[in-house]
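Q: Structure tokens for this one, please.
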Amino acid sequence: GSPDSGLPQKYRLGQGFIEAMSADEQTLTDASVESRDGKTVMKFTKPLVEPNQITISAGKIQTQMLWANGGDSTTIGYHGPTKGSFSIDLSSGAAVAVGAANKGAWLAHGICAFFAWGIFAPTAVESALFRSLFKGPLWFKVHQFLNSSAYALTVIAFAIAVANVSKGGASHWSTSHAKMGLSMFIIASLQVLGGAARPHVPAPEQDKTAIRKTWELQHRLTGVALLACGFWQMSAGIKLFANKFGTEEQGVTIAYWVWICFDIALLLIGGVYFKLLRKNVENGDGNEGEDVVQAEPTTKQKDEAVQSEDMVDAKA
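A: Here is the predicted structure, written as tokens:
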């Protein structure tokens, strides 16, 4: 509530939005809010037990509550760093201020997510796009190692988030960030399984099967989608962390997007040049009138070609 409205109400908070609860959920009584001697005084009576809401105990235990205000504004708006929490024993009225919980754990969650989707996953994709710069199947070993590392860190980040939310007593998957995290975890897991069970490519003189072609298309599109979601998810995470703990956001966000733009530039260079332009040149495009003589590959070279072709992108 605010002094302008004159009446405290119950609101439903989400990530980036706030809305008043429906009329039948407005159960506050004896509610008032006023400015007095430079302070805002809010009073209301609320039932401790209500359907589909967190139960508040009146026993001799500490109940944690949150507070926030919009600074000098008298209208409801973004609170910025003016927020906090306190624990109160409702049987005696004794209260004590507490700091935001699990800051170290949430920081570890963010670091794991950044290394997974800001470093390892993009570099894994780049190793596939720049494969012609590697000797033999080395690109695939690098590609596989980075993707495995990215997935392992994703599992760790996901486990930390689930444990922290459970510890705080909040509901799971209630925000867009949490829902996106769950979706990415499930899709990344399926992507890894799909890469392990991929249909093998045929010998060089044989055509790829329809199943193989379908798998390659699906695997690449899913990998690109996961990477794009990862970029958005990390940006949202930076904002959530800053809001929760009152840390500096702008500098971190700028540094983050500079790094991501560098990643995207490498991906575009690899995709456009090495996958399209250079491939056309190697196939003879733009070299009209030149005779290209190729030696018949040896049996060893054929075997190596089959092995290298079978090492297809497993973008996580």
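A few notes: The radius of gyration is 28 Å. Residues 50 and 255 are 45 Å apart (CA to CA).
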